[in-house]
């Protein structure tokens, strides 16, 4: 996780807080159901939004998908309250819920009073998520904070669901807990190693054991790739294994049946686990280098029947498939393409005090497979035909949700559904796989597409591209998807 601002001192608000009776408001707004789906939303890159209307599209899309609330990740930036006010108003206008997630990259565990005061500012808002009669609050990290002082300063009962870590945080103080690690890892925030591997399911069990009979807030994420070099002070460069994670994780969620699920994330472009649109208004922290022309909207469509099945308490999404679709994704280049001469991580003397910076290919690149991934959502059986460059392969897909992988081939990518010898639907992707360094980089992000194709091409706007050229060592034409020229942006 990364927030753009580098402010390290808390700007503590001293203004008056609402005088509403928070407990009465909580009873009136209680939206408790057996199961709720949240999605993590980064306020830190939303400082360019000018009104609540700038949040409307996000709220509408999320609600229509079945997401119940956005977890609004905040630091201590001067624009935080302005953007929270916009987000809460937009949520209210669109019958959506939101709650604050305090990011302890910026807050500190000795600031319990400040955390409580911030909760108090928004506890009475009609869009505030209320669970079991309490104001729902979460965090990124925060182990060891004084929860009693938070609640005292908030002046209301809170449903505290932080991102504590088993063996570190006091789980006696929580109502639930978020497991952020939605990716297989080595137990030390990097990709699995031969001698160290923790699966997401293993993380689930650790949290369930720590929580006892308290409800678990389980993560669901599709990807992780970050590639900041010395051009920014927050240099970091690694991947977690993605591949078919988005599909496989939702299968796990349906079997596990936790009370809460949090999608990681809606708009953290810097770590490539966004499912929201590229066009969603945001500033550029430098991630545009690997995010441009890499929409993830297809993952929204793939998750739709899984979310419906989860809320219905079912273990299969098959009965919730409406319109038939194929969702496909792949990296834009094979993993062994050599980009050392132009990649942004190769020069300068980046700060590696965090241990997260590596030169060249991202740490963990070996865990990614050179494959093209396809998920079919069908109402009756059919044949899935995939052409990846010179590689052609067909699969017999049953009715329901199925997943397939095809060897990655350089060139055009084509996907078809065939029944009784007739093509039902077919699309050629707007993004070729190339053996070249796109914008000079090692780009391990995923391109996600849908058959039938989406009506509009999802693109970054000019503000979202503001830092595109910073640190680049190769040409990088902008927003080339669908252009009449070559699909590939080459060095």
From TrEMBL:
Provide a Gene Ontology MF annotation, just one. Answer: glucan endo-1,3-alpha-glucosidase activity
Per UniProt, the keywords (alphabetical) are: Signal
| Record's signal peptide | 1-16
Query: Which InterPro entries does the UniProt record give?
Result: Glyco_hydro_71
Entry keyword annotation includes Hydrolase: no
Name this protein carries in UniProt = Putative Alpha-1,3-glucanase/mutanase
Against CDD domains, the record matches this protein to:
GH71
Organism, scientific name:
Aspergillus calidoustus
């Amino acid at each position: 996780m990364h927030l753009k601002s580098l402010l390290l001192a808390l700007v503590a608000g001293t203004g008056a807080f609402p005088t509403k009776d928070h407990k009465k408001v909580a009873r009136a707004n209680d939206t408790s159901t057996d199961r709720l789906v949240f999605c993590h939303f980064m306020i830190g890159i939303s400082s360019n939004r000018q009104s609540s209307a700038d949040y409307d599209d996000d709220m509408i899309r999320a609600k229509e998908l079945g997401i119940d609330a956005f977890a609004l990740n905040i630091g201590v930036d001067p624009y935080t309250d302005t953007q929270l006010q916009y987000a809460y108003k937009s949520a209210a206008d669109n019958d959506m819920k939101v709650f604050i997630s305090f990011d302890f990259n910026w807050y500190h565990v000795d600031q319990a009073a400040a955390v409580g005061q911030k909760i108090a500012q928004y506890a009475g808002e009609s869009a505030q998520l209320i669970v079991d009669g309490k104001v729902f609050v979460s965090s990124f990290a925060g182990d060891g904070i004084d929860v009693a002082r938070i609640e005292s300063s908030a002046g209301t009962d809170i449903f505290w669901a932080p991102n504590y870590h088993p063996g570190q945080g006091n789980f006696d103080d929580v109502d639930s807990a978020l497991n952020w690690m939605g990716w297989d890892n080595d137990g030390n925030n990097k990709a699995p190693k031969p001698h160290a591997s923790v699966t997401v399911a293993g993380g689930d069990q650790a949290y369930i054991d720590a929580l006892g009979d308290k409800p678990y807030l389980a993560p669901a994420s599709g990807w992780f790739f970050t590639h900041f070099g010395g051009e920014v002070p927050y240099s970091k460069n690694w991947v977690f294994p993605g591949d078919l994670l988005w599909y496989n994780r939702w299968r796990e969620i349906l079997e596990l049946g936790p009370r809460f699920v949090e999608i990681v994330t809606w708009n953290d472009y810097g770590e490539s686990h966004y499912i929201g649109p590229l066009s969603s208004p945001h500033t550029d922290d430098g991630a545009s280098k690997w995010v441009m022309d890499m929409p993830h909207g297809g993952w929204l469509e793939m998750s739709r029947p899984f979310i419906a099945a989860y809320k219905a308490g079912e273990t299969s999404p098959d009965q919730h498939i409406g319109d038939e679709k194929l969702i496909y994704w792949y990296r834009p280049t094979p993993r062994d393409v050599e980009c050392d001469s132009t990649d942004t991580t190769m020069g300068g003397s980046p700060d590696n005090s965090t241990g997260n910076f590596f030169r060249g290919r991202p740490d963990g690149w070996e865990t990614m497979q050179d494959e093209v991934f396809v998920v079919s959502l069908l109402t009756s059986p059919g044949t899935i035909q995939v052409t990846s460059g010179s590689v052609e392969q067909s699969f017999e897909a049953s009715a329901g949700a199925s997943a397939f992988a095809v060897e990655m081939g350089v060139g055009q990518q084509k996907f078809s559904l065939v029944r009784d010898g007739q093509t039902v639907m077919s699309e050629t992707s707007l993004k070729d796989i190339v053996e070249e360094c796109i914008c000079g980089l090692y780009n391990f992000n995923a391109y996600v597409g849908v058959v039938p194709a989406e009506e509009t091409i999802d693109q970054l706007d000019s503000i979202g591209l503001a830092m595109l050229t910073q640190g680049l060592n190769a040409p990088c034409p902008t927003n080339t998807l669908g252009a009449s020229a070559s699909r590939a942006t080459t060095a």
